[in-house]
Design a protein that fits this description.
With about 300 residues, the protein is of the alpha/beta class. Helices cover about 40% and strands about 20% of the residues. The chain is built from eleven helices and twelve strands. Strands 4-3-5-12-6 form a five-stranded mixed sheet, with helices on one face. Strands 9-8-10-7-11 form a five-stranded mixed sheet. A hairpin with a 2-residue loop joins strand 1 and strand 2. The longest helix is centred in the N-terminal third of the chain and has 22 residues. It starts with 7 loop residues before the first helix and ends in a 7-residue tail after the last helix. About 30% of the residues are buried.
């Protein structure tokens, strides 16, 4: 028997449905009709003898076979697309491409506005999806599920290309009318105070606790929160302290309810970078994206 042949368009349809978790959304992304995609999915199910997706309340969920196909199809598509991109011109003013950028919660808070202003001013039709950095970020970059990562991710240095954006430091933030701390924060008052800890995946908390442990000291943590978003409300008119990156702190300081002071222990600075997969070195579109990121967020950025 002759083995069935697989149309490349079916591969692209499958990958888009997988990522969109919806035939309707996938049709919109590919600018095709929903019946066309439903027919393509039916052909794929026939070829592989598997439903590939099952419908759940949250959308289409891939089967085991569907998961395996996505790993291979997405990697193959990324390789094919990279060969085309290296030969094609990229016109940002006319492109309708969607770029996917991963960053932390605090990165989303601090970076998104400046980044969107930069990109939209040069490429009004380009779409940007901001995603949270996941546990599989190395795989996401390798398979083309995301185009770039912005943040402090030293674990990516060995497997990606990257450029530095700026150096950052941690500071201590508290209410402007803190009852015991004025314009100088001593180590004694820092250790005696009550602290909120932001449970981020970065090494900030570890660095601070290690610096204190070297002096046989520790923070008194009375609350743990998942992100930085509502910290001014938690600190306002209290005796609580929280440590965060200086640039994020300054956005809150400008609101007038909190103040930021240097830490009373030496904690190493860290570097914020933009990372991308080495496979995209020849992609003009990715090169343009990195240029926009460095212009919007780098040390010499006009938005800073």
């Amino acid at each position: 028997m002759t083995a069935p042949r697989l149309d490349l368009n079916l591969v692209r349809v499958f990958v888009t449905i997988y990522e969109a978790r919806s035939v309707t959304r996938a049709a919109e992304r590919l600018d095709l009709t929903q019946p066309t995609l439903s027919h393509a999915l039916a052909r794929l199910r026939e070829v592989y003898g598997d439903p590939l997706f099952r419908r759940k309340a949250t959308g289409l969920v891939p089967t085991g076979v569907g998961e395996q196909l996505y790993q291979r199809f997405s990697q193959a598509l990324a390789g094919i697309d990279s060969t085309l991109e290296s030969r094609q011109r990229f016109n940002p003013g006319q492109s309708t491409r969607r770029f996917r950028i991963a960053m932390s919660d605090v990165g989303t808070l601090f970076f998104t506005a400046a980044l969107l202003r930069q990109i939209q001013s040069h490429a009004p039709k380009v779409e940007i999806d901001i995603e949270k950095i996941g546990d599989q970020v190395v795989e996401d970059l390798a398979l083309g599920r995301i185009d770039a990562v912005i943040g402090n991710q030293p674990g990516l240095l060995a497997t990606t290309s990257s450029l530095p954006l700026f150096h950052e430091r941690y500071v201590c933030v508290m209410s402007v009318d803190h009852p015991t701390i004025g314009q100088k924060l001593t180590l004694e008052k820092f250790v005696a105070a009550r602290h909120i800890m932001v449970m981020t995946p970065t090494r900030g908390n570890q660095l601070i606790d290690e610096a204190l442990a070297q002096r046989k000291l520790a923070r008194k943590v009375v609350a743990r929160v998942p992100h930085f978003m509502n910290l001014p409300d938690l600190l306002d008119h209290t005796d609580l302290l929280v440590q965060m990156p200086d640039r994020v702190a300054q956005t809150y300081v400008r609101e007038g309810r909190v103040k930021a002071l240097p830490l009373p222990v030496a904690v190493p600075e860290f570097e914020v970078r933009v990372y991308w997969h080495v496979r995209n070195e020849s992609s003009r579109a990715h090169k343009w994206l990195v240029e926009q990121v460095t212009t919007a967020l780098g040390t010499d950025s006009p938005h800073r």
